[in-house]
Design goal:
It contains 10 helices and 19 strands. With 368 residues, it is α+β, with helices and mostly antiparallel strands. The protein has 2 domains: 105 residues, 3-layer Sandwich (Rieske Iron-sulfur Protein), CATH 2.102.10; 202 residues, Naphthalene 1,2-dioxygenase Alpha Subunit, Chain A, domain 1, CATH 3.90.380.10. Helix 5 packs across helix 9. The longest helix is centred in the C-terminal third of the chain and has 21 residues. The chain starts with 7 loop residues before the first helix and ends with a helix. 36% of the residues are buried. FE2/S2 (inorganic) cluster binds next to loops.
């Protein structure tokens, strides 16, 4: 059964106290899944890497944007003028992928027929094309994508529907004081999980604290759930986790809106699929990467700036929390297939972040 997306006004009431949740077809319909890749993922900012991996002119990293779903072959380069680029990794001749891994080069040479490009994407030469008319043209250069940085973290977009500043302004204001530049990527605490559920269900679960006492009993001891709160921005959502014990809290600067309070975590959700979790010891980035309508890769990337505090924290806790979330999200995926379920209601105290995310989804997936 294929169900046509409906108009956004028909789907999510802007008043959370009267609204019903997004229809279950959004988690189960392969057509809506494909529409989300085109209309949401191809039009949003995606985290690529950090500048520590691209320090020297000549460095190139291949990167598949939206690995498993969008699958866009790209590369990040630092050219000989020290400028960073995000380029298509597809040769403009007959479409071969150019670079497979991390490398250090003066020029990019296609292994198929020898076409060369500069690290800024400009066409350089193509053997056998001496008599071709109107050649080279601008379309023979490698397409270049908008590339932005938030501190040392690089993001790119194929065709952004909102500006990078709109995505990150609140995060800069709130947690920009943290020593992000000196944070170090910790591969031993980074890993991928695969969840048998739609990508948006995983995001829904992240966006509410209502499930925490039921699903994560050990987290409840760390957080003061009574003063747990959510703030909505046009393209992001912040959940502020007050610490149950002041020893687990940030040392906040005077300019912080939470100065004087004990805060254990800032949980930022950047639309449509990135979770940036800031703790006193560092940052855990979770990327939600759709693989199919009911299968999703979750990439956990850990950056540490305070080893001593990191030592007190147990990575096993994050792994356990992830497993607990996976179980409930997979149970929901089974439930939303039911013929007897379509939509539910929102808790106004706890689920305004989910409502905000659903409004964004329905607005972008509706056909007017
Ligand atoms: S596909 Fe690259 S040179 Fe032919
Ligand atoms: Fe959870």
């Amino acid at each position: 059964m294929t169900v046509k997306p409906r108009r956004s006004e028909d789907i999510i009431n802007p008043d959370v106290s009267s609204a019903a949740t997004i229809p279950s077809q959004y988690y189960t319909d392969p057509n809506l899944y494909k529409l989300a890749l085109d209309r949401i993922f191809a039009r949003s900012w995606q985290f690529a890497t950090d500048t520590d991996r691209l320090k020297v002119p000549g460095q190139i990293i291949s990167w598949t944007m939206g690995e498993g779903g969008l699958n866009e072959p790209l590369m990040l380069t630092r050219d000989d003028k020290d400028k960073l680029h995000c380029l298509s990794n597809v040769c403009t001749h007959r479409g071969s992928v150019l670079v497979d891994a991390e490398c250090h080069l003066k020029q990019i040479r296609c292994r198929y027929h020898g076409r060369r490009f500069g690290l800024d994407g400009q066409f350089v030469s193509a053997p056998g094309f001496e008599d071709v008319c109107n050649f080279p043209a601008p379309s023979d250069n490698l397409p270049s994508l908008p590339l932005e940085s938030w501190d040392k973290f690089l993001f790119a977009s194929l065709d952004p529907m909102f500006s990078f500043a709109e995505l990150t302004a609140d995060m800069s204001r709130r947690v920009g004081f943290l020593p992000l530049k000196s944070s170090v990527f910790a591969p031993e605490h980074s890993r991928d999980y695969v969840v048998n559920a739609n990508w948006a269900l995983y995001c829904d679960n992240y966006l509410e604290g209502l499930h925490v006492p039921f699903v994560h009993p050990s987290l409840v001891q760390l957080l003061d759930t009574k003063s747990y709160r959510t703030e909505l921005q046009p393209y992001s959502t912040l959940q502020i986790g007050p610490a149950a014990n002041p020893c687990d809290a940030f040392d906040l600067p005077k300019e912080s809106p939470e100065y004087g309070q004990s805060i254990a975590a800032y949980y930022y959700f950047l639309f449509p699929n990135m979770m940036w979790n800031f703790y006193p010891w560092g940052l855990s980035i979770n990327l939600v990467l759709p693989m199919s309508v009911d299968r999703t890769r979750i990439r956990f990337l850990t950056y540490v700036w305070d080893e001593a505090r990191m030592a007190q924290y147990s990575p096993a806790d994050i792994d356990q929390t992830e497993r607990e979330d996976e179980q409930v999200v997979e149970a929901v995926q089974k439930g939303v297939r039911s013929r007897l379920y379509d939509r539910g209601r929102y808790s106004t105290r706890w689920e305004d972040g989910v409502h905000h995310f659903h409004s964004f989804l329905s607005k972008n997936l509706a056909i007017d």
